[in-house]
Amino acid sequence: MSDHRDGELAEGDAPEADGGHAATTPSTHTVRLELSDEPGQLLAALYPIADNGGNLLSIYHERGNKTPRGRIPVEVDFEATQERFDGIVDALRSEGVNVMQAGTERYAEEVTLLLFGHLIDTDLSDTLSQIEACESASVADVSLAAPQGTEESSSARLRVEARAGETETALAAVRDVAEGKELRLVEPLAGVEA
């Protein structure tokens, strides 16, 4: 004997569309986050996942491995439908969590840039945060050369990763930050063959 009448769906069942449950069947997703090294940040990042219907599977918290901005990379695996997955990523970003990778969304292109000027006086951490605020860009590596004190100009080599097809958008974000802080930017040469 069935627990529900014919034609009614049991809780958790989904109506079939085009002969299957593809749109409503949960699948495994991975998000790679960058969190501040402060108490409660990991827990705060997990709430948008749970609140939007994600079923947590695993969390890889790389406490000993920091990003160039001094943050902690965290990889979270969870189950969700595609629609819920998109909502989770949007919720994470609206909560101010830096989503470095979401599912198959990866930073596929890379450019190396040089910044010159008063990088320390203009707050290098803030400069990197402003670049990271552009969803097309992620700062993968930073190398700083600064003389003693802050009177002299310093330089930084940035390795910036951009989403596939969005390198120009990422570069525009770096240009805006450099201009706002009166820093000189040296961009890679385009179209030059060795």
UniProtKB/TrEMBL annotation:
SUPFAM superfamilies: ACT-like. Residues 1-27 are annotated as: Disordered. This is Amino acid-binding protein. InterPro entries: ACT-like_dom_sf, ACT_ThrD-II-like.
